[in-house]
Design brief:
The protein has about 110 residues and is mainly α. The chain has one domain. Helix content is about 85%, strand content about 0%. It contains two helices and no strands. α1 packs antiparallel against α2. The two termini are about 55 Å apart.
Length: about 110
């Protein structure tokens, strides 16, 4: 049993296959682009988290290396202020970097 296909049907099927192929190529390129963007943002996020951990370790080291707490209230309060200022400054910087990275994840592309 032989099946005869007209030339017009063959051309139509070839055009349809070419159209589907182009859609697949475009979808693959878009997916690749999104994956690359996500990788970039996740690497920034990871770096920001490492910076936060480094900040926490630095503050911890600072606490360990400090002189023993003062025995009078004024000295203790001054030591606390110094630590709070340093910690807040480092923490704010790390959180800001982390927030920028996270915000990039939430923004609609294009």
């Amino acid at each position: 049993m032989s099946v005869l296909v007209s030339e017009a049907e063959l051309v139509s099927k070839m055009q349809e296959a070419e159209s589907v192929y182009q859609e697949v190529v475009e979808a693959s390129q878009e997916r690749s682009s999104r994956l690359e963007e996500t990788l970039f943002v996740s690497e920034n996020f990871q770096q920001a988290m490492m910076d936060v951990m480094q900040t926490v370790r630095a503050v911890q080291d600072n606490l360990v290396s400090q002189d023993s707490p003062g025995t009078d209230l004024a000295t203790v309060q001054e030591q606390l202020r110094e630590l709070q200022v340093e910690f807040l400054w480092r923490f704010d910087l790390a959180v800001t970097e982390l927030g920028v990275s996270t915000k990039l994840l939430c923004v609609e592309p294009g």
